[in-house]
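Late entry, evening session. Most of the bench is empty. Finally got around to the prediction I had been postponing all week. Sequence below, unchanged from the version circulated by S.P.
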Amino acid sequence: MKGTDMAAELSWPAAGVARITLTRGDTHNTLTSELLETLDRLFDEAASAKARVLIVTGSGKTFCGGAHIKLFTDPASPLYRNARAIRDDYVKPIIRVFRRLREAPFVTVAAINGFALGGGCELALSCDFRLMADTARIGLTETRLGALAGAGGVQSLAHVVGRAKALEMALLGDQLTAADAKAAGLATAVHPAAELSDAALAFAKRLLLCSPISVAETKRALYRCETAAPDEADRIALDAVLAASAGAEWWEGMAAFAERRPASFRMEDG
């Protein structure tokens, strides 16, 4: 569905590659209830259409500006001075929507075209990879506003950059340049702003060379093993091996290697 009246839109820049663009850059692509509902629906559409890679990007000068501050400052808002509503009716739904990126069987790539601050940084953290424009900035800026990065920041950042760097970023609330984010391990790669869209698509196409089932099982196992004890991590890995080897892609890959030809992988129905 396309149209500038929508908070986000879905397109297909290549077969198997979906792209969700946050379209309200003029208002910083903030996390309104409309945007969250739209993302939820577009995730369903991408999954139903058998996307193998999903790129998430912004528009204008902003990837995602984070929380919609007016929700907290407008006396008519149900969130105004209502801590339980902020937790249960705003942050909790954001967590649920963002978690879908991590739990998706396909790869998710944040193409960070501009500012990714607060909840925007958390949206990027929810993706498997983060590619940044060299002019973009990213950071968990909540402490500068008296808030807390509870929509994925405190849960995920240390797994990506390590505890020491996570404490530095989350407590100071600084904005990192793309170069600093790359040095910290937060950004996968940095590209000239004019080349980011093409670079993200090229990165996605590299992933299309891989088995969809292998990618899905490897991704799921990696995230589950983050918090698992050693014995449980081994069980997770063995279950992933069982799932992968039960599918046709395992045998296609082995045959292709033996026959010295490229493997031909297609998303299996299921």
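Two things to note before I forget:
Residues 15 and 147 are 41 Å apart (CA to CA).
The first helix runs from residue 33 to 48.
Will write this up properly tomorrow.
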